[in-house]
C-alpha cells in the first residue's frame, strides 16, 4: 500500500479497512508504538484480554520458524470474529515470515508488528510499504502540535478545562516520548480528580520535585557565571542532604545536554532559536539557558565536562573532601562563565 505519512497516521489507523491484514508500527517513540498497537487491538477485537481473540508472539521465535505465522493467521477464532496477533520484533529478520503470512491470505486475522526505528531500506519496512494488504505506520517523537492534541483530548475526556497559558506550560514541560507523556498526564488527572479546571500550580505540585528545582537553580547559576548564587545554592542543597556526586552529576548532564545546542549556535543558529527547539526544557529556565548558549561554545563545554568528570573521580578517591572538591569544581565552572561574560 502507499506509504503513510506521520501526520496521517492517526487518521489512517482510525479508518483501517478489513482488507489490511498486517500493520507495522515503527519509529523511535517506543511509547507511541505501544499505544497505537494497544488502541488498534482494542478497536479490532471485543476483548483484548481474551486469548482466543488476541495472541502475543515473540518476533525472534517467529523469524526462526517463518511458517508458524502463516499458520497462526489461518486459525479461525473459536467464537467467530476477527483475531489479532501482536508481535514485538527482536534481533532477527521477520520479513520472510510476514511475507509468507501475506501470501497465505487465509483467516480473518490482523497482525500488528511493533518495531523500533527502521531505515527505509529495512526488509520488514520495505515489505509492508509495498505489499497490497499491509501498512507501515511511522511513530515519531511528539512535537508541540502532537503534545497539544494529547493534552486537549486527555483533559476534555476528564471534563477538566485548561487555559491557553496552562496548556502551553504543560507542552513546554513534557518531552517527546508518548509513554512518558501519558504517565505525567495520568498523575495530573489523579491529583486534580473532582476539579473542573487545571492550573499551573497543579502541574507544579505533581510534576516538579522541589529538590530538582533547586538543583536546576545551582546548574543555571554555575553555567551563567553567578558565583555567589552558585556557592550559596550549593551550600543550601548540601545542608538539605543532597549528595555531592548527585550535584556534580546534574551539572555534567546539563553540560552534555547543552552541547548539541551549542554546536548548532556555532554553526550559525541564534541562541534564542536553539532554546525554542529544545524539547522538554522547563519554560522558566529558557532565559538562563539562552544566556548559557551565548557564553559557552562547544570547545569550552567539553572542557567543562572534563573538569566535572575529574571532580567526580576526586570525590570518590577522597570522600572526606567531598564538599571542598565539589564546591571548587562548581566555582571553576562559574568562574569560567563569568570570565567570558566580562
UniProtKB/TrEMBL annotation:
Keywords: DNA replication, DNA-directed DNA polymerase, Nucleotidyltransferase, Transferase. It catalyses: DNA(n) + a 2'-deoxyribonucleoside 5'-triphosphate = DNA(n+1) + diphosphate. This is DNA-directed DNA polymerase. The keyword Nucleotidyltransferase applies. Its EC number is 2.7.7.7. InterPro entries: DNA_pol3_clamp-load_cplx_C (IPR008921), DNA_polIII_delta (IPR005790), P-loop_NTPase (IPR027417). GO terms for cellular component: DNA polymerase III complex. The keyword Lipid biosynthesis does not apply. It comes from Saliniramus fredricksonii. One of its GO terms (molecular function) is DNA binding. The gene is holA. GO terms for biological process: DNA-templated DNA replication. It is an enzyme of class 2 (transferase). Belongs to the DNA polymerase HolA subunit family.
Amino acid at each position: 500500500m502507499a506509504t503513510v505519512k506521520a501526520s496521517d497516521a492517526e487518521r489512517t489507523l482510525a479508518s483501517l479497512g478489513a482488507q489490511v491484514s498486517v500493520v507495522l508500527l515503527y519509529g523511535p517513540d517506543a511509547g507511541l508504538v505501544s499505544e497505537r498497537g494497544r488502541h488498534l487491538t482494542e478497536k479490532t477485537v471485543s476483548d483484548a484480554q481474551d486469548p482466543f481473540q488476541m495472541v502475543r508472539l515473540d518476533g525472534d521465535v517467529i523469524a526462526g520458524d517463518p511458517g508458524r505465522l502463516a499458520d497462526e493467521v489461518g486459525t479461525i477464532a473459536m467464537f467467530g470474529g476477527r483475531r489479532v496477533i501482536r508481535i514485538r520484533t527482536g534481533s532477527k529478520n521477520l520479513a520472510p515470515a510476514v511475507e509468507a503470512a501475506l501470501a497465505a491470505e487465509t483467516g480473518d486475522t490482523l497482525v500488528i508488528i511493533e518495531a523500533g526505528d527502521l531505515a527505509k531500506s529495512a526488509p520488514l519496512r520495505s515489505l509492508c510499504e509495498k505489499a497490497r494488504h499491509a501498512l507501515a505506520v511511522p511513530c515519531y517523537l511528539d512535537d508541540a502540535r502532537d503534545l497539544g492534541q494529547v493534552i486537549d483530548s486527555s483533559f476534555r475526556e476528564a471534563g477538566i478545562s485548561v487555559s491557553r497559558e496552562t496548556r502551553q506550560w504543560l507542552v513546554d514541560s513534557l518531552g517527546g516520548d508518548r509513554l512518558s507523556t501519558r504517565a505525567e498526564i495520568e498523575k495530573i488527572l489523579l491529583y486534580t480528580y473532582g476539579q473542573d479546571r487545571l492550573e499551573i500550580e497543579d502541574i507544579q505540585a505533581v510534576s516538579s520535585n522541589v529538590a530538582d528545582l533547586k538543583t536546576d537553580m545551582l546548574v543555571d547559576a554555575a553555567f551563567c557565571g553567578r558565583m555567589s548564587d552558585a556557592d550559596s545554592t550549593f551550600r543550601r542543597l548540601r545542608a538539605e542532604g543532597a549528595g555531592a556526586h548527585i550535584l556534580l552529576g546534574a551539572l555534567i548532564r546539563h553540560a552534555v545536554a547543552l552541547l548539541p545546542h551549542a554546536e548548532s549556535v556555532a554553526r550559525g543558529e541564534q541562541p534564542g532559536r536553539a532554546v525554542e527547539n529544545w524539547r522538554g526544557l522547563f519554560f522558566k529556565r529558557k532565559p538562563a539557558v539562552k544566556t548559557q548558549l551565548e557564553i559557552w561554545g562547544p570547545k569550552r563545554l567539553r572542557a567543562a565536562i572534563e573538569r566535572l568528570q575529574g571532580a567526580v573521580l576526586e570525590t570518590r578517591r577522597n570522600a572526606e573532601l567531598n564538599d571542598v572538591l565539589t564546591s571548587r569544581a562548581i566555582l571553576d565552572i562559574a568562574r569560567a562563565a563569568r570570565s567570558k561574560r566580562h
